[in-house]
Design a protein that fits this description.
This is purine-nucleoside phosphorylase. The strands form two sheets. Strands 3-6-5-4-7 form a five-stranded mixed β-barrel, surrounded by four helices. The chain has a two-stranded antiparallel sheet with strand order 1-2. The chain has a single domain, classed as Nucleoside phosphorylase domain (Rossmann fold, 3-Layer(aba) Sandwich), CATH 3.40.50. The protein is of the alpha/beta class. It is globular, with a radius of gyration of 17 Å. The two termini are 32 Å apart. β1 and β2 form a beta hairpin.
Length: 214
């Protein structure tokens, strides 16, 4: 898939055993929600207890700049299909509580590490949408009015299923483009990748230290 290598990696990071996905399945590619979230089901069966997710997203908060990092405090689900539709998996309740889908202790740990390393991080609400089109200026403004700070085409389904499985989750977004402001800004996939690649080392530094300390 474009922008995603699609490899599964096992190894050690920060002295901990890890399983890493280099790329993921996206709903906009035609996969079902069961397909999109199948890796999280596998992680649960393998004994994974903590999930770190990252994404490239469009910033709607006027305080954000391209290349900023945003720790995800909460999300708004705009996907047309819910990943828990159908027969309930016995990994969690039929109606899971979602008041803390993104673990507070992990978010606080990220803040502590970012301060120690002098890395600027923002916090905000991530809006998950189907894609594959980037948002119109009106859509950006609508999501902002609804309480969103950044918008993207992934993450929410995976986090819902992980949370349903009792897996603690930490999410972080790289702000790769901006929208909904007075001056329209065109965005391309190439520009998104360029901004993501530039900010990735800072995000990786935070995550590596989080894994070491958690």
């Amino acid at each position: 898939m474009e922008g995603h290598a699609g490899r599964l990696i096992f190894g050690k990071l920060g002295g901990k055993d890890i399983m890493a996905m280099e790329g993921r399945f996206h709903y906009y590619e035609g996969y079902s929600m069961k397909d999109v979230t199948f890796p999280e089901r596998v992680m649960y069966e393998l004994g994974i207890t903590t999930l770190f997710v990252s994404n490239a997203s469009g910033g709607m908060n006027p305080d954000f700049k391209i290349g900023d990092l945003m720790v995800i405090d909460d999300h708004i689900n705009f996907f047309p299909e819910h990943p828990l539709n159908g027969k309930n998996f016995p990994t969690g309740p039929r109606f899971p509580d979602m008041h803390e889908a993104y673990d507070k202790q992990l978010r606080d740990l990220a803040d502590t590490i970012a301060r120690e390393k002098g890395i600027k991080v923002n916090h905000g609400v991530y809006v998950g949408v189907q894609g594959p089109t980037f948002e119109t200026p009106a859509e950006y403004r609508m999501y902002r009015l609804m309480g969103g700070d950044a918008v993207g085409m992934s993450t929410v389904p995976e986090v819902i299923v992980a949370h349903h499985c009792g897996i603690k989750t930490f999410g972080i977004s790289i702000i790769t483009d901006l929208g909904g402001f007075d001056v329209p800004v065109e965005v391309s996939h190439e520009e998104v990748q360029k901004a993501a690649n530039a900010a990735q080392p800072l995000m990786t530094e935070i995550m590596r230290e989080m894994i070491r300390r958690s």
